[in-house]
Amino acid sequence: MIERKVSGRRTFKLDKQRLFSGCILVVRLALGCLFMYASLPKIRQPYDFLSAVYSYELVGPKLGMLVAMTLPWLELLVGICLVSGICVGGGFLISAGMAAMFIFVLSSALYRGLDISCGCFSSSSSEVVSYATLTRSIILLLACIAAYLLTTGLNNANETTAECKDTEIFSSVLDGNLLGRQSP
């Protein structure tokens, strides 16, 4: 715990766990909003997104239709989970999986020299597949993995602390020392 003096008289304590929790909250909200923002144009214009999926030339008609129908809704669901704080660990894992898939798809298009629309945030041709979009996907993956690891690390630390407190209470009960008094 770090103590700092403010204005010479007041002090506040900055706990590392609270600092990490605050950073995770910012990352969680940013990723959640990003996924919700990315999903909405694809949900509103499914045929344009289907065209973007086909332009990558990786899937056939049936699988392309399945991807175009499910991916935007999965992005929206993950975004809602991250913003609302429900199933955060699962949201980070699924978002990391989607980011890894985006990296694979973008890398494949760059390797094959396809000059196509990214399809990331809209189906318009304004954003073309480039090393910038690949870099953005890599940063997205790293943020998802880091947030997941920090989230699970903090949860494990909280569970360990709770287990220690439970053990202390249980041993106090066994010793007859529930109120912290010494036995005569």
Please explain how this structure is put together.
The structure is a single chain. With 184 residues, the chain is mainly alpha-helical. It has one domain (16-153). 72% of the residues lie in helices and 5% in strands. It contains five helices and two strands; from the N terminus they run E-E-H-H-H-H-H. The chain has helices at residues 16-44, 46-55, 61-84, 88-112, 131-175; strands spanning 2-6, 10-14.
Q: Terminal Cα separation, in Å?
A: 36 Å
Structural domain tally? 1
Output the strand order for the largest sheet.
Answer: 1-2
**Strand proportion:** 5-15%
Number of helices: 5
Number of strands: 2
Secondary-structure-derived class = mainly alpha
Largest sheet: 2 strands, antiparallel
Mean pLDDT: 81
Low-pLDDT parts are: 160-167
Query: What helical percentage do the residues reach?
Result: over 70%
Rg: 24 Å
Shape: elongated
Element pattern in H and E: EEHHHHH
List the helices and strands and how they pair.
Blueprint: E1 2-6, E2 10-14, H1 16-44, H2 46-55, H3 61-84, H4 88-112, H5 131-175
Helix pairs in contact: 1-2, 1-3, 1-5, 2-3, 3-4, 4-5
Which structural traits does this protein have?
single chain, mainly alpha, elongated, 2 strands, two-stranded antiparallel sheet, 184 residues
Provide a compact summary of the structure:
By secondary structure, the chain is mainly alpha-helical. The protein is 72% helix and 5% strand. It contains five helices and two strands.
